[in-house]
Each structure stands twice: as structure tokens, then as C-alpha cells.
Amino acid sequence: MPDLERARKTPRGGVRSRWRRMQGWTALVLDHLKPVRVSLLVLATVAVVAIAVDQAAELFLIALWTDPSRWRYLALLATGALTGLAMWHAARNAYRLRYPRWPSLQDERAAVLRDWLPRLLGASVPLLICLGYVLALSRLPHGPCGITDQCMQRSWRALGLLVESAALIVFFVMRRRAWHMLSRHMAGVRAPCLQPREEKRVWRVRELGPRAVAMYAAAVLLNVLATVLIAIRPELLDGIGPLAILLIAEAFLCYNGGLLCMLGDRRGVPLLSMLLLLGASLHWLHLNDNHRVRQYPAMSTHERPAPQPADTRTSFDAYMDNWLTDRCAERRPCPVILVSAEGGGIRGAAWTVEVLGKLTALTQQGQSSGSEPLFARHLLASSGVSGGGLGLAVYTASLAQPQPVDVSTLEPRARRLLSHDFLAPTLANAFFVDFTQRWLPGAWLNDRSRALTRAWESAASKEGMPAFAQPFAALYGPTAPSLPALFLNSTTVAEGKRFIEHPFKPLATPQRQPWTAGLDGSSWLDPRAPLSEVVLNSARFTYISPAGTLEANMANPPVPDRLQLVDGGYFENSGATTLLELLRLVRGKARERGIALRFIVIHISNDPLMTDFIDQHDASHPMPVYSTACPAVPGKLHDQVSGEATAPFYALLDTRSARGEYARVQLLNALRPDATQPANGDILWHFRLCPGNYPIPMGWTISDPVFNELDRQLGRYPLQAMGDALREQLAPVN
Question: Which of 42, 64, 652, 713 has its CA 20 to 30 A from that of 203?
């Protein structure tokens, strides 16, 4: 019986023993991860972004495939090596320190972990870049070699990252041995330890040695200098590349963040938690809001606006009267072009200027070179959201020239402007300037949205478009209109309504309310608001551009006198709602004047997966409508049923697309055909994007293959026939 009892208990005791050993090893490993938690958190975030964020894929493709610049590639290698060295050195120093709370960090069983974890952290940086690049290549529909004629040459760039990772490992492992061998032949030089585990453990950071202390001091000083430089001139970073900016920020965050962890962990003070609590408290109490909407060109985002001067803006009614008088004399019906451009970041902007530039050039064929462009002359108004609004602003600014506009230069100038890297200055400000402001009470520094507008203004100035840095309303004087009226759509946070920005006096009055579920932006905005800031208010996309606080600074401010603005796509992303309301205003004004109009509506969308609202058109309805069908996308459709935890979030996001679809159909239904003479009735053209040969990003940086893909998709339309039809409609009356 005793032997049987002992046999019955032995396995159970063995299981408990193995379980205790497993628990001990787990606790040991977790304790060893705590001193390097900043680096681990940064690497985990980078891995998630590289795997799950579609917008990041274009950054990897630009850096390693489509960018012809060797210098930017070398800068990427240099910053990758710098970040790897920073992670390795920070982790190595963290393991040299003694922590009273974690005596297991001196456990000999984990000596291998202390030796190799810093090395693996450092070498993982180039590997993560290579992983992001490979994943981006896997998303290309037709393979990477179809987008450039330098396929093999670009393949070596990824190999360079693998070589760099291996070189870092070799450096981490062999540097001690190499220095140990040299010390034998150098008098007075102390031989280093062959393994990190053999180094003396210390109790204070200053005991790490003069070189380590000097490197920490230099890192802190360089971080401060970089923050100051970015705060003063963020546009100087245009051309460095977003990945290089992210790597530099990662290096400083891991190195200086590791220093804060060592200082706090040594004394048992949760410095990082205290900083997070401080930042959250300042944010919650609105004590460091540096996201104010700029009301005039000289204003900063961290200061309150000065009182606005007298409102000298013209009214939209006067603009319409002058426009109809100038354009519609002896015309019946008078052709009126209206344009709506959807949001979508840089792809929305690029697609918009490609379409409008091509139509402008086609309608100008056969006209004298110095004459006013026919398409622009009959374009009365346009409504844009986010990136589509940026494209409309670029097109409008390119027309605002003192000399006659050369239509052949519209497309190349717009392409050069949008080819600038707007993301690098924005990210640099976010990770240096805005990051610093989060821990400072009071507003002292310009935010990342100002870095974005400065990048736009700088790029536009290089292309001879100073209008971006000038007051929006200054483009529209009291005389005969020479530019199309530009309407840009934002969304208010508290009210959840559209916020319509335009260069005229407020359209909404007690007697007339043209905006449904919308606020007239001119009732809040200063007449001196620069064009770049107006575009930004429509393009304050989630977290890339922060929500802007708009404070009315007029003598009799509206109620409420303070609003918060975000991207116009939160309400609906098509811009069609505002265009429909403008159509009704113009139609009413023409009715008063006894003028017959023919509306030519051009809708520019950019979502490759959207449902084409032209499909809803009744074929028996004698109104010309045109769009192109997208080819079927192979592959398995996503499940339309979500779990109970995620279903509410998907519903909130997807209703935005549904509101856009509703607005497009309402716009289509508002157009009037002419049953007797269809050529005199309203028409609608829909320029859409489809899933193509190259992924088109939604961020704020773009590459040449994206423009080539846009050109290819624009070629699917019968442009010459469309241009001939427009030219016939818009030709001057003899």
C-alpha cells in the first residue's frame, strides 16, 4: 500500500514541479523585458503598422523600389543602422544597472538572455524594414517588375538591409574580441570583458562610465536641437523620406526613453507612468491646446487670434450675378460646370488635378494660346473634401496667375507640386514638436498641422502658386469673377455637422439657410484665413492632422463662438451634398434673371471599391450620364457579419460611405433632362478609380508609379470625344 500510494503521488508532484519551474522561467523572462520595455513597445508598434496599415505599404515601396535617389536610400541605411545601435546600446546599459525591485536580473541562468536580447533588438530594425517591404510587394496585383524597368536593380536594395542586419550582429559580437586582441599590443589600454555578462554591475547611471554618460548627454542635446529645428523650419525635411524620419524618432525615443526608465526604475519611481498621467491631465483640462485654426497668415497654432478687421469679402450672390452676366450673354442654354471631388488623401488630390487638367487641355484645343481656358471659364463652383479639396485648391491656385494661363503646364505643375513629400515634415513635427508639447502646460509650439500647411505652401511657391500662403478671400475680388468658386467641407466635432468653407460673406441668413445639417464657415472664419489653412480644415484626417480649435474673433461672434473641426469625410466623403445645394442656389439665381442653364456636373471619386451611383440611373431617363465599369476583383469577399464587439464600430465607419452614396444619388436625381432636345439637358460625368496594377495610397506622399497608374486609368475614358463635346458646348458665341 505505501508503494502504491507513492507511485500515485509521484507524477502529480512531477507536474507541480515542472509547473513551478515554468512559472519561475516565465517570471525571469518578464523581469528581463521590463528594463527594455520602451524598445519592445516601439518595435511592436512598427511591426503592427508594417503588417496591418495599407498606407504604410507605399512608404516601403517608395523607399526601396520606386525612388530613384541613391542618397535617400543611403540615408535610409544610415538611419536604420543608427536606430539599431541606439536600441542595442540602451538595452546593454539597462542590463548593467542594478534594480532593487528586480534581483532576478542578476540571475546567472539568464546571462545568455542579457547578452543576446540587446543584440537582437538592434539587428531587428533593418529586418523590420525589409519585412514591411516584402509585405508591400506581396500586395501588388501584377508583381513588382511591372511597375519599373529596373527590377533587378531595386531588388538589391532589400538585400542591403539584410546585409546591414547581419553586419550589426557581427559588430555586436566581435567588437569586444577585436578590441581585446588590440589591447594586448597597446600599452596602458585595459582589455575589455569578452562577454557583457562579465561587466561590473553598477547602482547609478553616472557609474556606467564617462563615455556612456557623454553619449546620453549628446543624445538629449541632439533631441532638443532637432525639436527646435523642426519647430522653426519643418519644410526643410521635404526629401529626406518618411521612413528615415520615423527611424530617427525611433532612435531618440528608445535611447532617451531607456534613460528615463533607468532613472525611474532604479529608485522605484514610475516616471513613464507619471509622464503619461501628466500628458493626459493637460489634454483633458485643455491646458496645452496648440491646435488652433489659423485665422490669418501670420498667426500660429498656439496663439489666440487677434480681432478681425472689417469684412470686405464679396457675396456669393454678387459673384453669381457677375458670373452669369459675363458667361451667359447670348447663350441659351448657358453651360455651367460644377465639380465635386471626394476625399482620399494624396490620391484624391492627384486624381482630381489629373482629371481637371486633362479636361482643361482638351477643351482648349483649337483656341488661341493666350485666351482664357474654356473649361475654367465655365467652371462656376467646385466642392471638395480632404484630399479632393487639396486637388481643387491646386487647380484653382494654378489659374490665379497675373499672366495668361498656359493650359499645357497645368498637369505637370500640379504633378510636381503633389510629388513633394508632405508626410516627412508632418511626422517629424508629430514625434518631436507635438510630442514635447504634450508634457508642457500652456501652448508654446506650432503643431503638426502647421508643418503640413507649410509644406504645401513651400511646394506651391516653387511652382509659382503663392495663393496657398495668402488669404483665401483675396482670390475673389468684387469685379467680374476670374476664378471658380471653391467650397471645402469640414466636420464639427460637437455638432457632427458639415462646416462649409468658402471665400464669400456668409450665405446663411435668417431669411435663407442653404446648408442642410451644415454650418456656414464664413460666420466663424476670419476673412484673412489663408488658403492652406482652409484646405487643412477639410483634410484633418484622423491623428495625422489633429482636430483644430476654431475661435470666432469678430465683434459679434456667433453661437457657439468656438468649434472643433475635423476631416470633412467624417460626415460624408463625396462633396456631393454641398454641390447639390450650390446647384439649387445657382438655379434659383438664374430663374430670377430669366436665364436658361445646362449643368455639366463632374464627380471625381477615388475609392476603388465604391458602388457606382451611375448604375442607379434610369436608362429611359433621357439625360446623358457617363462612367466606366471597374473590372471584377478576384478573391474571396469579406464576411459581412461582425462580432458583437466590433459591429458598432464598423457600423459607425460604414455609415459615412452610405451617406456619400446617398448624396451622389440625390445629386443625380436633381439634374434635369431635356426630353425634346437631350443635347440641351443636364449631363453628369463620373470619373472613378478602380483596383489597378499598382496600389494607390491615401497618405500625404506619392510616387511616380502612382501617377502612371492614374494616367493609365484616365486613359480608360473616351477623353477626346468628351473634350470635343465640351468644346462644342463651351465655344465662344460669334
Answer: 42
Looking at residue 506, what is its pLDDT? 92
pLDDT at 634: 54
Contact 729, 335 (CB under 8 A): yes
pLDDT at site 378: 93
Any idea of the CA torsion for 178, 180, 181, 182, to the nearest 10 degrees? 90
pLDDT of 56 reads 80
Nine-digit cell string for 205: 547611471
What distance in Å separates the CA atoms of residue 29 and residue 104, rounded to the nearest whole number?
9
For the chain, the straight-line distance linking the first and the last C-alpha, in angstroms and rounded, comes to 120
**What is the residue extent of each domain of the chain?**
31-269, 322-489+528-537+565-630+655-730
* Sequential DSSP letters for 406-461: -GGGHHHHHHHHHTS--HHHHHHIIIIIIHHHTTSSS--S--HHHHHHHHHHHHHH
Listed as ranges, residues in the chain with pLDDT below 50 are 1-10, 148-150, 152, 635-637
Helix (H) or strand (E) run with residue 215 in it: helix 210-232
C-alpha span between 439 and 445 (Å, rounded): 12
Identify how many contiguous H helices and E strands the chain contains and give both numbers: 22, 10
Q: Which residues of 466-485 are buried (b: 16+ CB within 10 A; e: fewer)?
A: ebbbbbbbbbbeeeebebbb
Q: Give strand pairing partners of 486.
A: 382
Helix axes 111-138, 151-183, angle to 10 degrees: 170
The second-level CATH assignment, the architecture, of 322-489+528-537+565-630+655-730 is 3-Layer(aba) Sandwich (3.40)
Q: Which H or E run includes 202?
A: none
Q: What is the DSSP string of 257-313?
A: HHHHHHHHHHHT--HHHHHHHHHHHHHHTTSS---BPPSSTT--TTSPPPPP----P
Question: Is the distance from CB of 642 to CB of 653 less than 8 angstroms?
Answer: no
The pLDDT assigned to 162 comes to 92
Q: Long-range CB contacts (< 8 A, 24+ apart) of 505-510?
A: 505/311, 505/313, 505/314, 505/315, 505/316, 507/316, 507/585
The confidence score (pLDDT) of residue 450 equals 95
Q: In the structure grid, which three cell numbers stand for residue 298, read together?
A: 501670420
Q: What pLDDT score was predicted for residue 98?
A: 87
If residue 379 lies in a helix (H) or strand (E), which one and from where to where? strand 379-385
- Position 290 scores a pLDDT of 93
